[in-house]
Specification:
With 169 residues, the chain is mainly beta. The protein has three helices and eleven strands, in the order H-E-E-E-H-E-E-H-E-E-E-E-E-E. Helix content is 14%, strand content 37%. This is Lipoprotein.
């Protein structure tokens, strides 16, 4: 009886495992566009800040995962206000504004609007009568950062890469 039960199991066809669904992930790296304009500091001025302390990873566009297209690159310019909050995300070059890149730029925009930066602080230092230096004036300024987001999809997995670079607002 046991032998008959084992023989019955061996006659059933075994279905191959289905491949895992495609998934998305993200990382980033800095870029500098040729038209980037930097703040010109006066003598005695020193800048600090303009560094990210909170970054949210973009989510690979779900509608694009099924097709698993070749690598897609989107350049985006993050506009940061005096408080360090990202207020706008714009295509960083003409190619990034193309219609077929819209889902990737939208994913970039959604994530980047949640990023937070230390404000860009510009301090003006001067020496007093005793020759000791101290801050005589301080201000915060808006700025922009250029990022390259690289969306890649592999068999069952997608990845995004990104970066930053300081530029004037």
């Amino acid at each position: 009886m046991l032998l008959a039960g084992l023989a019955a199991c061996s006659s059933h066809a075994v279905r191959p495992d289905t491949p895992p669904p495609n998934e998305g992930d993200a990382s980033w790296h800095a870029v500098e566009q040729p038209e980037t304009v930097h703040y010109q500091l006066a003598m005695g001025e020193v800048s600090s800040g303009a560094t990210a302390f909170q970054r949210v990873t973009p989510i690979y566009p779900v509608a694009q995962l099924a097709a698993c297209p070749p690598a897609v690159e989107v350049t985006a310019k993050l506009i940061v206000d005096r408080a360090g909050k990202v207020t706008d995300v714009r295509p960083g070059n003409a190619a990034s504004a193309e219609a077929d890149l819209a889902p990737y730029l939208d994913a970039t925009r959604t994530a980047a609007l949640r990023w937070q930066f230390n404000p860009l602080q510009i301090n003006h230092w001067a020496a007093d009568a005793n020759g000791e230096s101290h801050v005589v004036d301080s201000r915060t300024e808006p700025f922009s950062l250029d990022y390259l987001f690289r969306f890649t999809c592999h068999a069952g997995k997608a990845q995004v890469t990104v970066g930053d670079k300081l530029a004037s607002g």
